[in-house]
Amino acid sequence: MLKKLLIMTITALTIVSVVGCSSQSKTSQSTVKKPDKIVIAYLPDEATEKTAEYRQGLQKDMEKALGVKVQEYLCSDYNAAIEGMKAGKVDIADFGPLSYVQAHKRAKAVPLVVPALDSDKSKAGYYSYIITQANNNSINSINDLKGKTFAFVDPDSTSGNLVPSKAIIDANSGENLTIDDLHANGKFFKSVTYSGSHQNGLLSVAKGDIDAAPCASDTFSIETTNGQVDKNKVKIVYTSPIIPGSPVAIRGDLDPNFIKQVKNFYLKYNNDSYFKNFVGEKDGQKMRYVSAEDSDYKYISDLATKFGLN
User: Fold this and answer.
1) CATH 3.40.190.10: does it fit domain 37-123+246-306?
2) pLDDT of 229
3) Are strands 109-117 and 125-126 parallel, antiparallel or unpaired?
4) How far apart are CA 192 and CA 151, in angstroms?
5) What's the pTM?
6) pLDDT confidence of residue 304
7) Do the domains 37-123+246-306 and 128-241 sit in the same CATH topology, yes or no?
8) Burial class (CB in 10 A: 0-12, 13-18, 19+), 115
9) Share of the chain above pLDDT 70, in %
10) pLDDT tens digits for 151-191?
11) pLDDT per position as a tens digit, 220-242
């Protein structure tokens, strides 16, 4: 009798345990608070007609995977993406390293992923070029820029402002230049402006409208490979050290479990056309997303602090 009672008690406890686990599992699944929709912001270099097909392809795949509507927001500049996220109107953005650092500080952005060659994070990075016309014999290195016309990309651009500014200041250490000097007509450059995008700066150089400009290496590769710019009309006179890759970041105030789902989507995304035509994968390469961490951008954050850009 006691043995039978003991068996019944153990059985009851087992059922309660199983039911409890099942209930907890259902509760865990239901605790993911998904927004009604998510908005992905694209910066000027990405918000082009020729990349629209691939952006929209990712959005459809994301809607299917996450079960939420996905919309895009084409930004006029880096600051618009940051302010949009701060106001809760933008949920995800493909930031540059500097604009990510600023978004982390101002809009509580957190990094999700970064594109990397062969899914190897040590290969997740790009370069800042300074370019001029191929037949411009007066500019052959970064030391030949004084007195020329120049177009930075955007105040919040890493490879289009922060990194080339540091390089020019370092190359002209005897001039005691400040970053403000580089952005004032007649101080160092004959005239200086912002092009608004890496493509605009590259095209302006190729057409001879300005003497020189910085350009992100991935943009340079895409534009010259696709024939948008004749690579024989421009030359690279400076290449920076490698810059940490540009991260996809998300609003940090969204549900943590939903953020994990979004990150997992990017990490598993395997669309060849997207990586070739949007991210900048070259023939013979394979780029995919790998995990990004805030600590990856400490060098950029320190540099931004030094120049008062964060």
Assistant:
1) yes
2) 93
3) unpaired
4) 6
5) 0.79
6) 93
7) yes
8) buried
9) 90
10) 999 999 999 999 999 999 999 999 999 999 999 999 999 99
11) 998 998 888 999 999 999 999 99
User: Domain extents for the chain?
Assistant: 37-123+246-306, 128-241
CA distance 164 to 170: 10
- Domain spanning 128-241, CATH class: alpha beta
Type of residue at 178: T
